[in-house]
Amino acid sequence: MWTLTLRGGARVAVAAAQWCDAFGVVTRGRVQLELRGGDLGPVLGRDAGFWLCGTGVRALRNPGRRTARVRIVTPRATTVTWRSTHPHPSHRTLEDDMNRMNDSGVVAGPASGRTSHTQRLRRLVGTGFVATLAATVATTLAAALAQAVGVDFEVPDGGESIPLSGFAVVTGFFSVVGVVIAVALLRWSARPAARFVWTAVPLTAISLAPPLFSGADTATAIALLGLHLVPATVMVPTLARSLRTRTD
Q: Transmembrane ranges (predicted)?
């Protein structure tokens, strides 16, 4: 029997040989399973037990700041090579460790987890920046095309037509808001991709209301609806895919 300690933000890779016939129980904090392909799985709380052999789980994570501990029971007859990132004069086995100590401990620090998280954050921001530019350009071009076929984009309240620069500014602003939401979910949510989609889709639907009640003519209202959907079709799938992407 041995104890795995995961400090806040830590990540430990799961090797099938190490977890063969092993049963783990979370004794403190929370532990999140990282699935094959980099997707984040369920978060296990205190007293939750689990098997990992044959499940496709590739790593264990501590999604919080508080140190988490997992008590792991392995049959004494099982001999498994423990490969550590620290240099050892020779390979040792879990069986040898259990013969030397009744309850050995393995501590995982937050360095690898934080590095991975920082890499994902930087990649998300970079992807969001590129997607924002693409959404702004696509929306502006679509607005210019609509004007070319006769849509005046005149809003009755002001009596003035919406300029192309107005479409660019508004699209850029709300696209950046979407990136900020994605970053926040990556930091605080255990399922950032799903949560982002659940947030972005209702917000997109709400944004369709103003064109419908603006009092503009039919052609302008339809064009405005389409221009609201253009950046959404660029930003939402791109950011959701980036939140799911394996980066480490």
A: 124-146, 166-186, 193-213, 219-240
Q: What is the pLDDT of residues 160-174, one digit of tens each?
A: 788 999 999 999 999
Q: How far apart are CA 175 and CA 169, in angstroms?
A: 10
Q: Give the end of a domain, one of 44, 79, 109.
A: 109
* Measured distance CA(226)–CA(221) in Å, rounded: 9
Verify that 159 and 101 share a domain, yes or no: no
Dihedral in degrees, nearest 10, Cα atoms 241, 54, 115, 130: -10
For 36, 83, 126, 168, 172, the CA distances from 176, given in Å and listed in that order, are 31, 43, 12, 12, 6
- Looking up tokens 């296990």 gives 44
Task: Give me the percent of the chain exceeding a pLDDT of 70.
Answer: 78
Are residues 71 and 121 both part of a single domain?
Answer: no
> CA 130 → CA 137, 143, 185, distances in Å?
11, 20, 19
Does residue 135 share a domain with residue 99? Answer: no
12-17 average pLDDT score = 78
> Cβ-count burial of 215 within 10 angstroms (0-12 exposed, 13-18 middle, 19+ buried)?
exposed
Q: State phi, psi for 154 to the nearest 5 degrees.
A: -90, 125
Looking at the structure, tell me whether residues 173 and 68 fall in a common domain: no
